[in-house]
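INFO  loader      accepted 1 record
INFO  loader      residues=352
INFO  predictor   begin
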Amino acid sequence: MENNSFLLYGANGYTGELIARFARQYNLRPILAGRREEALAPLAAKLGFPFKVIDLNDAPSLQAAVKEVKLVLHAAGPFEYTARQMIEACLQTGTHYIDINGDIAVFEMLKHYDSKAKEAGIMIMPGVGFDVVPTDCIALLLKKLLPAATGLKLAFASQGGGLSHGTAATMASKLGEGGAIRKNGKIIRQPIGQKGFWVDFGVKKLFVMSIPWGDISTAYFSTGIPDIETYTAISHTIFRLLKLQGLFNWLLRKPFLRNFIKKKIDQRPAGPNDEQRNKAISLVWGQVADAKGKIATARMTGPEGYTLTTHSSLLITKKILEGNFLPGYQTPAIVYGENLVLEIPAVSREIL
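INFO  predictor   done
INFO  writer      dumping tokens
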């Protein structure tokens, strides 16, 4: 087993392929894995990496493949359907598990494997991409600036770029399900877009609305702050329309409508091309407040979301393969600190 080798499952997906393409920049050699040989073989030949065809539901074959490596970088979503099979294989074989998930329910599910991971001596770290590395680092930074903080707001935006098939498909599968916040330490369901306000991201002022981002789970783990809300930039017109969502959420949950939307997604490009990604940027803003009304604010500018995901996931992979990890369920900032995001190319951050 080579020290720079790991299993990249979902390598033929949009983000998985980007991670495979950038791996050599980090002196890493992924074994490309997924369900379809016709998608993996050409990619493996192009990049000069080995590949394996593995069905997640074939537990013996999955365990045999995972046993050959120290770490799995899981990039095949929607993770609500794929994470459990992979984590259970990793626990059986003593293999570290990281993924690029952003689903609150998946983060919460994986937390339950903490004690088993500690027994196996492995680390479970979901969310090693744009969701949640930059926001997790901002959250921990702000907690250190204001240790008595009781409330945390996080917002992000993308200028340029676009969505991959996988991200769009995951969003489509959640249509009509509503949003979430954390209140008094508990995850509370509420409509998407329940709240909105203007944020000065430095580059630009943008309107943001509340959405169920992964930090509703992870930022609580990283900071212990009891009240957490997450936001994304949105057109003010769409925000107003979403105020009517209670009238049509029942329709959005219908399989025929979700299938129709999925077909439309499949007709689009796999994701932003290299030129679009190189021109685009991501923006992150965070603010904490304590019971006395004192606040601390920080913001960050970085590469486009998929580019950032590629770098952050490979950076964390390299650290783990070099022996830099903590057993059990972990978040990126807890293990690698609030400055982890600054190790990613083209990231800048300021405290206001």
